[in-house]
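Researcher: I'd like a candidate sequence for this fold, 374 residues long. If you have to choose between options at a position, lean toward the conservative one.
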């Protein structure tokens, strides 16, 4: 297990890591996420004794890295795959590390096989592709058959087959009861690989929970509703009914309705009651990427300035349908139910989805709205 308590690192006036406390438990793949410059590498370097904390501490199985007897046997890490002497052959590189740590030579050939570099064992590493370098870095981490493994961006430069291989390897290592801590910017990959996520922003802990909980807590679920036919009539009738029932309705570029604040069965009932036929009624959960962007948007240190050409490739925004002007905007009560709140999707110029906690709160607004849509 890795345990950080109040872990802090300052470089002059810059606080790279700010009072981080977390545990990375065995038997799981724990993803370590954060925007560029949020302190992931610095945290990993402190775990591995390469940087000394300014305050707080981090231990591996109860001891700081520097106090672990024969650390290579306890902890394996891939921090920088390029940190290899280019003139050395892959096998010689691994052998030198094995000899320093009292690891038998046959283990070198084992790990070369595990990472699929048997045929490149006698090649000099300066001729290695990015992906081969990553594989060699992973082989180095596995050399001591350690219980704790740290990987900083392990799939960087790997092709799809390589990415799948890394995913399976991480999961297998965790299934063997090892502690696997892996940083990545590839959200879709983390969603498939990690059971647990630690998310940081500007050196501080933003979230420490299971991947599933993270998505659920930070996602804005909505229903996509497509009314039969191309005409606006069904859309307007149903949209008005949904709004009166407490739903928040936005229109997608293809004419489908995006509904928040109402459960799917309720939407289906309202469609039935208003005699509107549906071609689609589907639930949507945010992806890990959306959930992550939502959580870290205020912690991003490096953002680009507006590019005047951006509108050329911006997706068409969601729009507020016409009938929304008629059915008055919902009154927001002081306390809203958490599941009814969802910020607008990134890039949307539309008003936020902000629903009352109970459809009953909508009654005064609904009474003022016309019965028939325009
Ligand atoms: N040796 C150093 N001296 C001064 N500042 C540093 C040093 N190392 C890191 N920093 C700063 O600390 C902050 C955190 O850097 P770090 O590399 O840990 O972030 P990161 O989350 O790994 O970023 P990325 O995702 O881009 O790799 C950054 O602002 C960085 O500039």
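Model: Candidate sequence:
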């Amino acid at each position: 297990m890795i345990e950080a308590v109040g872990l802090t690192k300052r470089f002059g006036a810059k606080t790279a890591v700010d009072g981080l406390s977390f545990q990375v438990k065995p038997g799981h793949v724990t993803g370590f996420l954060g925007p560029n410059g949020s302190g992931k590498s610095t945290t990993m370097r402190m775990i591995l004794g390469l940087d000394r904390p300014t305050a707080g501490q981090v231990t591996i199985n109860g001891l700081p890295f520097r106090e672990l007897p024969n650390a290579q046997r306890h902890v394996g890490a891939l921090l920088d795959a390029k940190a290899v002497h280019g003139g050395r052959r892959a096998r010689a590189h691994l052998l030198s590390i094995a000899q320093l740590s009292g690891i038998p030579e046959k283990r070198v050939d084992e790990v070369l096989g595990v990472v699929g570099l048997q045929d490149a064992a006698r090649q000099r590493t300066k001729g290695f592709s990015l992906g081969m370098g990553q594989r060699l870095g992973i082989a180095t981490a596995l050399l001591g058959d350690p219980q704790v493994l740290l990987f900083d961006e392990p799939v960087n430069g790997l092709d799809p087959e390589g990415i799948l291989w890394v995913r399976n390897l991480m999961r297998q290592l965790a299934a063997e009861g090892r502690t696997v801590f892996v940083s990545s910017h590839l959200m879709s990959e983390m969603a498939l690989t990690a059971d647990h996520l630690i998310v940081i922003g500007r050196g501080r802990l933003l979230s420490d929970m299971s991947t599933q909980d993270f998505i659920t807590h930070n996602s804005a679920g909505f229903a996509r509703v497509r009314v039969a036919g191309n005409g606006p009539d069904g859309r307007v009738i149903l949209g008005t009914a949904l709004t009166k029932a407490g739903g928040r309705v936005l229109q997608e570029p293809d004419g489908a309705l995006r509904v928040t604040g109402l459960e799917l069965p309720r939407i289906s009932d309202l469609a039935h009651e208003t005699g509107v036929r549906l071609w689609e009624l589907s639930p949507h959960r945010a992806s890990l990427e959306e959930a992550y962007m939502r959580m870290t948007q205020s912690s991003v240190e490096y953002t680009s300035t507006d590019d005047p050409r951006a509108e050329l490739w911006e997706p068409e925004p969601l729009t507020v349908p016409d009938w929304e002007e008629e059915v008055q905007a919902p009154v927001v009560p002081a306390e809203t139910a958490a599941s009814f709140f969802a910020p607008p999707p990134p890039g949307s110029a539309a008003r936020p989805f902000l629903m009352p906690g109970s459809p009953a709160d909508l009654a005064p607004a609904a009474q003022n709205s016309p019965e028939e849509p325009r």
